[in-house]
Amino acid sequence: MSITSPEQLDKLRSCGKIVAKALRAMAARVAPGISTSELAETGARILAAHGAHSSPPMVYNFPADVCISVNDEVVHGIPGDRIIQPGDLVKLDLTAEKDGYHTDSALTVEVSPSIQPGIARTRALC
Fold this sequence. Notes:
With 126 residues, this protein is an alpha+beta fold. It has helices at 6-29, 36-49, 55-60, and strands at 53-54, 67-70, 89-98, 101-110, 121-124. Helix 1 runs antiparallel to helix 2.
């Protein structure tokens, strides 16, 4: 897809801002004791609140709204009952659609065992 007008760029940016907001909210909740499904629910709620939809279920029939991979899982992990532990490396990957425009972003959160529970360091993957 080529963006050929300011209106199209605005729609793309709008969707990107929603994805960023959802990723930030999920990253803030990454802590020992939370499940990957709880993290995914956070992202799904934010998408819905802003009129966006997860792209993977729409396009690929993926079974979840967010891809969450932990430690040795490289990408596209399916959220479930897995509980985050101190020292885990949690990859959050979210692709959303709004008004026909899709945006995709991911980040990694390292759950440090040397800091208080509920505090995590994040860094962008792309």
